């Protein structure tokens, strides 16, 4: 499940809670089911959002070249974490 699933649950719950006007014989309260789906969708949305924001990526790059002045090999390494250079 992800952010889209959370939004879909919220939308389906809102439709059931506010737009559907059906009496199912007293056994099932369609409005209560709508409110439960909206709450579940909000929880799924928030949990997915937290996981997306916590996702970290580290990229290390290395470049080797020869210094034309003295012929020595020079290696440059850079590591970034979520786009920000690490020091």
TrEMBL record:
Record field: transmembrane: 7-26, 32-53
UniProt biased composition (Polar residues): 58-77
Entry annotated with the keyword Transmembrane: yes
Superkingdom of origin: Bacteria
Keywords of the record: Membrane, Transmembrane, Transmembrane helix
Stretch list, region Disordered: 58-87
Annotated DUF6458 domain residues: 1-79
One Pfam match: DUF6458
Name used for this protein in its record: DUF6458 domain-containing protein
Organismal lineage: Bacteria, Bacillati, Actinomycetota, Actinomycetes, Micrococcales
